[in-house]
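It is worth pausing here to work through a concrete case rather than discussing structure prediction in the abstract. The textbook approach is simple: state the sequence, then state the predicted structure, then interpret. We follow exactly that order.
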Amino acid sequence: MGANVFRTCSDQTFIYINKGARMAIKSRVSQDRRNTSRVMARLDCLLTVGGVDHKAVIVDLSMKGAFLSCNILPPGGSTITVTIRPPAVKKQLVFTGTVIRGTWVTSDHGRLGRFGIRFDAHSTDILLLISKLNS
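Step two, the predicted structure:
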């Protein structure tokens, strides 16, 4: 297999790196009804909605999407761009996704929008970030 190809098995996701070497990413499939598990992230990010930037936090992350917290709540179905520069990765990562659900919550930080997004495309960058967050 080529570099940075990934495959999901029943209980693990594998990334194949150069000449068949692989690295397993543990899965919580038995604890999670989703077909891809989420990893707790707590990553600061920049959220762009309708051309306006907002500070946000990625609460958790999976290969298919993320759950975010922000001072706004984008409407369901809206397209957003998420930009992060995680400490575990040297380059800035930019992902586009669609808001699939959300709600307002009250926290110690005041009223916040909490919402889930589905990424528009799979990315090896997301897989590498998840593997670094898991280690």
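Step three, interpretation. Strands lie at 5-8, 12-17, 21-26, 39-49, 52-61, 65-70, 79-84, 93-107, 110-119. The domain at 5-134 is CATH 2.40.10.220 (Thrombin, subunit H).
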